[in-house]
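Thread: ArsR/SmtB family transcription factor, structure

OP (GT): Posting the sequence first so everyone is looking at the same thing. Length is 132 residues per the record. Can we get the structure tokens written out before standup tomorrow? I want them in the notebook alongside the other entries.
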Amino acid sequence: MQITQVRSTVNHMVHYQTRLDTTFAALSDVTRRGVLEQLVGSDASITDLAQKFRMTLTGMKKHVSVLEQAGLVTTEKVGRVRTCKLGLRRLEEEAAWIERHRQLWSARFDALDELVAHLKCKEKTDAQSKRR
């Protein structure tokens, strides 16, 4: 593999990890998840969101900024009103990451279930042997 290909692959992985980190950090807060749920129904001003979540404008602006950085929300200022709407970015990469890890853990739990069943069967057989 050439050095430029390695650099490109490394840059892609760093970008991918940074994007996952940014998205999951944005989604880690209950208020930000609530804002996204609110915006599914309709666009809203930062003032409306602040009132809905009973917080200061400054606090809501910070939450919206985090969501914007993750590409989950866009804002548009018209006059003195800043309106928020869902971003165009979909969560396909994040969903794929979650699915890969779900499959991994599912396989591990299936293997554990098999081991437990085997051990129970062996324990039962050993107990029957001892009674004889």
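GT: Both are above now. Quick notes for whoever picks this up: Residues 40 and 68 are 15 Å apart (CA to CA). The beta strands are 44-45, 73-78, 81-86.
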